[in-house]
Structure formats: C-alpha cells, structure tokens
Specification:
The chain has 275 residues and is α/β, with parallel strands linked by helices. It has a 5-stranded mixed β-sheet with strand order 3-2-1-4-8, covered by helices on one side. Strands 11-10-9-12-13 form a 5-stranded mixed β-sheet, with helices on both faces. Strands 5-7-6 form a 3-stranded antiparallel β-sheet.
C-alpha cells in the first residue's frame, strides 16, 4: 500500500499535535525545551533583575524563539516550596490549610498539587497567581510540576540497587533538596537554602544523624550543581565513609541532553527517564 502526499500531511499534522514544550523556571533561570528529531532542543532565557516571575515570563513568551511555536502540551517545572503529604492523608480541600501551617502564606500565590503515585505521596506547592495566569493565557491548561519531581522518581528507582540505606542531596538554584526512601515511600524530604560548604555539611549530617544512618556502611549520594565539589566531598568523608557524587554524562552514557551546556540535572532526568 502506497502513501501519497495526503499521508505525509497527516503525519506532519499528527507530529505537530503531539509536540510538547517544557518550561523550567527558578529564581535564577528560565528555559524552554522540546524534542525535535529525537534530540532535545534547549533555549535558555536571561531573566531581568527587578522584574517579577510573571513579568519575566510574559516578556519571554513575547521574545523567545521557542515560545512563538505551537505546542499542544506544556509542562512547567517550578522551583517552589514543597510540602510532601502521604497519599492516604491527602485531601484537596485541606491542601491550602496544610500548606499555610507549614509556610508563610502570601495572598498573591496559589497552592497546587502534583501526585506522585509511585512514591505514595502528593507534593503540595505554591505558585505566583499572576505567573499561572500568564501561562494559561498563552497555552491554556498547563501542567505544573515541582522541579525536583523527575529526580525524586529517578533516584527512588535507583534506591533499590544494593542493600545499604541511602540519603540523597540534590543541588539546584542555590537550594539543596534532601530525601531518603524506605518501604516504597519517602522516609524524609526537605529543602534548604545553602550558600556555602558549612551549611551543606551541617544540614546533611543533621539529617543523617536524625535518620540513624550508619557512618561506615550506608551511602550519601550527591547530584546536581554540587558546590565546592571536591572540598565538600573531602569534608563529608571525615564523618561518612561512602560519599558518592554523580556524573550525569557517565551515568547516562553520554546521552545528547547531558552534553548541552547549562541544562540542569533535573531537566536531563526529565527527558531521559520521564516523570
């Protein structure tokens, strides 16, 4: 059976209808990315100081090359404050109240949720109201996801390798996410603002002690934009024998997205492992 020009047109239409855009936004950076011809295309955008996230996004949607293209599905990875709730304790009606008891409430922000079924948890986080409005005006319905979600999923699956307990530290945007898993769910999850090696060591070793982990047998895994990598590793090894620092290029066999300058680890994992 031969396929003429009509089939080609329909194939192009199908591809266009299924194009997906991923926007990653933090306090320090904004980027647009998608997959074209099996490879990730990445477009960073320089945020303007003194402008709100919504104003920066509005300007980016007006000027960025990728923002002018048509996409049927849009996922927004947000660097946000997260409250992790066990799935069996989650109620949409109570999410706002729980979040406001954990973090200082702000009138210009709204609370949203992202379900993590594999981890038996729901990530409750907040987003600037005007930012969500800007995105929805441009794209309609968008999927809002905490920036660390791909990393949680990926490292959860890797946590089953070996018999040792593992504590994870993921670094991005001057923030450290610390988490551990046990019996198919989060054992611990928290976020910390870190600016120097001393802060990192204090928080990591405090959590290590809190969880009662073995300094000689259990493992501490660091990934992402690890600050002062060599000095930090050396310092931690004075207290924890097994400190492992990830190398995404080697971990993912030199996959194309790992070779693109500036792509954060969470975005690499998002494209290589999904959510």
């Amino acid at each position: 059976m031969q396929c003429g020009a009509g089939c080609a047109v329909r194939a192009e239409h199908y591809e266009a209808m299924n194009r997906r855009l991923t926007i990653r936004l933090s306090r320090q950076s904004l980027s647009f990315s998608t997959v074209e011809g099996g490879e990730v295309v990445y477009e960073p955008y320089a945020l303007k100081a003194g402008m709100s996230a919504a104003a920066n996004m509005r300007e980016a949607l007006r000027t960025a090359t990728m923002a002018a293209e048509r996409f049927e599905r849009v996922t927004v990875l947000l660097d946000a404050r997260v409250l992790m709730v066990p799935m069996n304790m989650y109620s949409e009606e109570d999410a706002q109240l729980l979040f406001s008891h954990t973090y200082t409430a702000a009138e210009h922000r709204v609370v949203v949720s992202h379900v993590l079924p594999e981890l038996n948890a729901v990530a409750v986080f907040d987003v600037e109201r005007d930012l969500r409005q800007v995105l929805e005006e441009r794209y309609g319905q968008v999927r809002l996801v905490p920036v660390c979600a791909p990393v949680w999923h990926h490292l959860y699956r890797r946590s089953f390798t070996g018999m040792k307990q593992k504590l994870y530290g993921y670094f991005h945007d001057q923030r450290m996410e610390v988490f551990a898993f046990q019996q198919g769910r989060f054992r611990f999850q928290n976020q910390y603002q870190v600016r120097e090696q001393g802060d990192v060591m204090y928080f990591l070793l405090s959590v290590w002690k809190q969880l009662g982990m073995d300094a000689r047998e259990d493992e501490l895994h660091l990934s992402g934009d690890v600050p002062e990598r060599e000095a930090l590793t050396e310092g931690l090894k004075r207290y924890v024998k097994r400190v492992l620092v990830g190398n995404p290029t080697g971990e993912f066999n030199r996959a194309q997205v790992t070779l693109i300058e500036g792509v954060p680890y969470d975005l690499m994992v998002y494209y290589l492992k999904g959510l």
